[in-house]
């Protein structure tokens, strides 16, 4: 095989136009599996959430989970789809050990939702991504590959299968091909998946955590010369983070451009994305074309959602996240840049809740994007994973605003809250962080500072007010920081005037 | 004219994960040809406007509430497994990433 | 009266009244099994311990003055394609040999609730694919009437067990005729209920859109009593009917009067004539004449699409089977062949499936895989589904003119063992008459109606969907008329 020279992204983009397509799988957060009553908890002991149905035992039969059907219709509605009035499950037949029945109950030519779209905003511009279909299927089990060096299938001596995940409802959302994004294609892909995640999270039907696999993405990429027909596409699997979506498209564009530059053709194939290298590698070439032999699932009867049912579900669809962001930006009076830093930090909900708890937008932003973002970053966790609530942040700010603590004390109080010592009020009380506002105690401290520093006191009496800073510092030191610097300064000046 | 060739039978057998022997291939190819020739008559009557019947029961929207049911006891899950290890089903090495 | 010659209705009464214990009844049947089953090979597994424990529980419940359920103490033979908790279930296949299921089929739970004592599991054509029970991996079953002949299939173990007095009742499954044809050739009653009337949960699937479990009995009333015990809605089966089941027991009692005034019987033109044994045709014609004498109006009705039923069936059933049988893959249960530490999973799967499945099963898996494969779906599976629609339309039109349709159950009497094993098309022809009702999902019963050269002939009575009671009513009339014509019940003519 010829190793093609990899061009730069810019040079690739000067010769070719990319067309992308995304197939996103979302595990629904239903209590039970798609076709049986087994629980769906993540991380349970292997093969403990299993019954005859999801283990594919002879004789067992499926019955569809009403909550999964409703969740799928709601996703379809949120993605502006038409909801089918007649929809059927079909069997997708192929042998694979993590699939108990060796067919996947899925949907083929009669999906629940079709022809929708999702608008995503990229650098202030709205890009419409058209949705081809949203359908429902069941997830597979998980295999552990043993004996190979890397836990990969290649080189393993045998594999161990856990069927806990088998049968968990999985919604597949397929876009129509997205053309015309040009060099922005990788960012459009990422923006689409991000927006899709937010839409689904707002619906409350899945926790959509890519790192846990409850949202998984396959990315189709092809290149063509401007004006020419679309090229042969590859399908990149295992793209398991938002950042990877962007990187996978980016690296596949460069790889394909290199091949095309060298006069080679693109093979239609499945490729695997590697988080570590940011590159894709070819999946094993298939001996023969897959032939899934779809046919209508005889063990399940058709779905025929009537208008009243669909209407009642429509009433539960929340405002689209992108619309909500624009509304909040306006209400909060923020610039595009300020709003996108909130969005990028994943702090929209947190700041909204903090404001609802009484803080100003300014204060909420200051805490969440400042001190708290630093701490989250240091611990390598998401903001929402910090053990502090928006109500705590609002309470903390209220203490500052009331002059009961200063900024430095506030940071100590924050530390206490994060350490699980209680609410800011409780931490301030328990740690004795309140500023020294007792004028007697403070007066004595000021008098002592003046007495200890007669030279400085004399300068101030002579009108050199800038020298007051040194005395303020001395007072702060003697009160261990628990004084309000402004009050101390005023006190010094009044005593020495 | 033969409706199904020996090679086609071999291909289909691979798709169906049946390691049929050479002798079986010969027998099946002949028998399947006879059967297919006979069943092909279905094409004579089924016109375009006739809807296919996949389900004879007049039922739609048969759904169950999202309520947990009983799982198998852990011992029952692996009880019939040809091989098990670490509470998982043990299978020989897998060639393909996906079929 | 010997317990083994009693009907299920008689046993239930006698046990309820304390005239006989459930244990005595069960033991008498086990004794009969011990004396005849080495020849018949009707049973694959006996659950002596479980059956006697169940019988004892019934006897002590009675002693405690508890009200017994309807069929308390009645023994039953269960086709080994119905899943039973802690009792080996094989579908007569090597691939499943030794499998001890961790759960019970819904109908097994219903039968236990009705007080039925399950004696054991009966032989069948592997995965119910066949019409002679010769496709069993564990040897053929023999017909009690003539041990050189087959008891029909695929539920031949169940039909032989009932005809051979090993059990008064049995459960069979019918995909294309697998209850009705064995009932006909062993001289007993067998009913295929309306699709969805009896839960399929725990029935090892052959062809999901066609499979239906149903009862065997030596009398129409016994079959009706068992039907009543197993029918009804099951939330675990999405295709289970929600409409209340018709009162088949009342229908069986009503029909025994053999007064069919006001009933119109349609005789299906396409199911008879050339290719049908003369003795079969004669017995069926004589029975139809008797129905007319009993007050029924008899009309000839043509159902032209029935000629295409065989083709449609042998595309649909193998297609669904190819998918249903994919789960037998050496991973979670059952046989594993060739796992030598070097072979890949694909090789082990393929070798296991080749070694574990018999020739007929493999033939149908290949046929079905082919019919579903890309490029052929429309021509085969798609067309067959349309034929299904046409057959349903023929039934609807026919039932505008008549209340029930009748035909021979099978074109021939029981055929000799070995006669058709190497000729699939000849074997498939045994189901010619039973396939239309399977494809349309409508109910049909086979009731003994006469003898041809000393072997039993069955009449098939077909009714519209949900009207299983009509099958039982007319069958009960046929039973009364046939018994009168022969001077004693048909089965009493068996030299067994």
Explain this structure to me?
The complex is a heterotrimer of chains A (497), B (99) and C (496). With 497 residues, chain A is α+β, with helices and mostly antiparallel strands. Chain A contains 16 helices and 16 strands. Chain A has 3 domains: 305 residues, no CATH class; 111 residues, no CATH class; 58 residues, Arc Repressor Mutant, subunit A. In chain A, a hairpin with a 2-residue loop joins strand 6 and strand 7. The longest helix of chain A has 20 residues. Chain A is elongated and about 95 Å long. In chain B, a hairpin with a 2-residue loop joins strand 2 and strand 3. The mean pLDDT of chain B is 89. The model of chain C has no long low-confidence stretch (mean pLDDT 97). The longest helix of chain C has 24 residues. Chain C has an 11-stranded mixed sheet, sandwiched between helices. Chain C is built from 16 helices and 11 strands. Chain C is globular, with a radius of gyration of 21 Å. Chains in contact: A-B, A-C, B-C.
Task: Explain the layout of strands and helices.
The complex is a heterotrimer of chains A (497), B (99) and C (496).
Chain A: H1 9-15, E1 17-27, E2 64-65, H2 66-78, E3 82-83, E4 90-93, E5 103-106, E6 113-122, E7 125-138, E8 142-146, E9 158-162, E10 169-175, E11 178-179, H3 185-203, E12 215-224, E13 234-239, H4 242-261, E14 270-273, E15 280-282, E16 295-296, H5 307-314, H6 321-332, H7 336-344, H8 348-356, H9 361-379, H10 390-401, H11 407-418, H12 424-431, H13 439-452, H14 454-461, H15 468-478, H16 485-496
Parallel strand pairs in A: 13-14
Antiparallel strand pairs in A: 1-10, 1-11, 1-12, 3-6, 4-5, 4-16, 6-7, 7-10, 8-9, 12-13, 14-15
Chain B: H1 6-15, H2 22-39, H3 42-45, E1 63-64, H4 74-78, E2 84-85, E3 88-92
Antiparallel strand pairs in B: 2-3
Chain C: H1 8-16, H2 22-40, E1 43-46, H3 48-63, E2 75-79, H4 106-113, E3 117-122, H5 156-163, E4 169-174, H6 180-186, E5 189-192, E6 212-217, H7 220-230, H8 248-255, E7 264-268, H9 278-293, E8 297-301, H10 309-324, H11 345-356, H12 359-372, H13 378-401, E9 404-408, H14 424-428, H15 435-440, E10 444-452, E11 455-462, H16 468-486
Parallel strand pairs in C: 2-3, 2-4, 7-8, 7-9
Antiparallel strand pairs in C: 1-3, 4-6, 5-6, 5-10, 9-11, 10-11
Helix pairs in contact in C: 2-3, 7-8, 8-16, 10-12, 10-13
